[in-house]
Amino acid sequence: MLQLAWSFLYWYLRPLIKWFLRRTTKLCELQRICYGVPSGAQRTLEVEFSLENSRCAEIKRLISDLNQASESNKLDANGRSIIHYAVYTVCRVKCIDLHIHSQFTKSFGACVQQIWGYRQLLQEVENLRKTSYDSTNPNHEEKLLLLWSLLKPDEQLEARISKQWQEIGFQGDDPTTDFRGMGLLGLENLIFFAREYPKAARHVLSHSRHPNYGFVYAIVGINITSMAYYLLRNGTAKTHVYNACNGIPSLKLFHIMYSYLFFEFDKFWINEKPKNVMQFSIVREKYEKGLKDSLADPKTILRLNFHVDEI
């Protein structure tokens, strides 16, 4: 109740506070953030908050335009012109001299790239998640067979429908049904991890066969896809993304984050020494809580650190 009352009071007094600081510092809120807050997630998150809470009609219209551009995947093709439009609009509305405050235009433009690049990345990830695996699509089938060859390079797959799929952690003879929840995104994540970090992926696969702490590799991998997706969707991953990428984040950045999450979960699982695989949900929740606590720090960046020499 107290927090709700404070939030209401702050919202009511916010314009007055901004006016007072503008008069005393001769700088608008966005300038104060860009000049006074270190670059990275902390600055970008504060810029994002300032824009979202603006009561200016032109700023609201700008945000709507940027949302539409990111959701239409236009930032890559027209990124420079869109960023210039955003910077020019804010400088005009806030009466900021572009020549005197050239550093502001660079810093603010970088924040705009990160904020709406994140939205665009989310849209790309969402599109993949919504794409169902189609066994009649040759491209989908090719990707599935690629996953097998990456994880089991020395073993020939005897048939498309085979119990061999269970060796890499699918539930049955046909893996296609396991992609229902995360669609093609789950498969793309598994492939990226196995292709870009083959030693690490086989390290995790070997742990999945542990006599005491084994788990189903592919199913857990798809579950980690779900975790990564929801961290991205609810904004928890913004800290990492804003710190890891200075410009527009690509789908590759999401795949790298997934690879980190999968590898680190494997270590966490082994360290927890679960009695059996039925404790997966408990261990997963504990792992995710620690991850969220870490991402609450604006300085956090999830760095890949694959130590697999002990295999």
TrEMBL record:
InterPro entries: ELMO_dom, ELMO_domain-containing. The chain crosses the membrane at residues 213-232. Residues 139-295 form the ELMO domain. The keyword 4Fe-4S does not apply. The keyword Transmembrane helix applies. GO terms for molecular function: GTPase activator activity. PANTHER family: ENGULFMENT AND CELL MOTILITY, LD01482P. This is ELMO domain-containing protein.
